[in-house]
């Protein structure tokens, strides 16, 4: 029954929601992700560490990438290619393209409606912009519960199972012991709160990402002569034009969208919870940064995995096996047996940072529902129990249930984005107008948005005066 419900929701409803509304946001914003594409790199370069205990835009990006760049980039791509053929990769690209617009607006709104926690710390996300932007507390509570159940609980055990069994296959480690060690290491990070989670992600995410990209690029460059033909195969297969994969057209679309959403999470409402913690000069700047993370996740990392699989010679139409084994064997076919070990280590790092990300999403949801300190301590203890328990359990049924609640997240979040889209456009246009005037780092003037329920502590008037002075000087210089 769960499988039937999941197939309907993620195979039909999710495609319409993600691709349909993502396309709507793209058109109404005049292709914001394309207009700001080059700008994304400059904003990323300008992202510096926060000062005075605040978290920077760069740290928020690393924390969001901790969740976006995970098992979906290794196992998920393998599953998509296995069940949908090379054409699934093309539909992952399409999903990411329209998803970049969704991510821009959801993360921009998360910044607009974020709430100050004191000492330069913030909380925000869909629950907050639903409550303060739409004044629909019941809808915000529903979203928070779905987010807590999906990321805070269900995905914890699944991620733990993935990493412990990957280590068992590569090194023969007992999942019981690795599960306990994993829980202890994560518990130490959890106790440090968002600052420690961000610091660990700040360290591990670049390492795991660059190492994985480096090895996969080596494989791609050794087969560079075949890359143009393989890219052509991906495009032709996406439309059923390649005879070898003509029967997989429907599966290519479904698997491409499903695995694409699972990998980059654009539109699900998870990343905005992290985007809101950053201290930035303008909400849209964080929207640009988070749109860049979708590009990096899908067009760089997922594409590297896909080309690794398709160029290795190991994959053949009709391949039967799991996504991890396909990626491991594909790399081993080119570089030798150490490729399997490398994939296991990379997957372990990916999953470790994913669990940190999932934990914070659950904590953020819980803090929205209850500020009781003992409830938070109970949540931390329960998460550690789930990590140990999940390390030895096959949770395929839980995964099917989590897929259903994840579709529910997308439905609630995208509905809220649609209803708040005019606000998102206003903020985007304010950002665009300042950039057209020659301002390199636009400033958010809360006085222009007094009709919105904006937290004055998150966007203080005095800070705006100082920033406004910088803006005025920068504008005058640009006009000269």
Summarize the structure in words.
The chain has 480 residues and is an all-alpha fold. The chain has a single domain (2-420), classed as Amino acid/polyamine transporter I (Up-down Bundle), CATH 1.20.1740. Helix content is 77%, strand content 1%. The chain has 20 helices and two strands. The protein has helices at residues 2-28, 32-35, 37-46, 57-68, 71-84, 87-112, 126-134, 137-171, 175-191, 193-222, 227-238, 249-264, 271-275, 283-311, 323-335, 338-369, 373-390, 396-419, 421-436, 461-479, and strands at residues 115-118, 121-123. The protein has a two-stranded antiparallel sheet. A hairpin with a 2-residue loop joins strand 1 (115-118) and strand 2. The longest helix is centred in the N-terminal third of the chain and has 35 residues, at 137-171. The chain is globular and about 60 Å long. The relative contact order is 0.19. The model has no long low-confidence stretch (mean pLDDT 83).
Question: Which labels suit this protein?
Answer:
480 residues; mainly alpha; Amino acid/polyamine transporter I; two-stranded antiparallel sheet; 20 helices; 77% helix; globular
- Which geometry do the CA atoms define? globular
Output the number of helix runs. Answer: 20
Cα distance, first to last residue? 67 Å
> H/E element string?
HHHHHHEEHHHHHHHHHHHHHH
CATH topology: Amino acid/polyamine transporter I
Task: Indicate how many domains the architecture comprises.
Answer: 1
- Summed over residues and divided by their number, the pLDDT gives a mean of 83
Can you tell me the residue ranges where pLDDT is under 50 for at least 5 consecutive residues? none
Structure class: mainly alpha
Amount of helix: over 70%
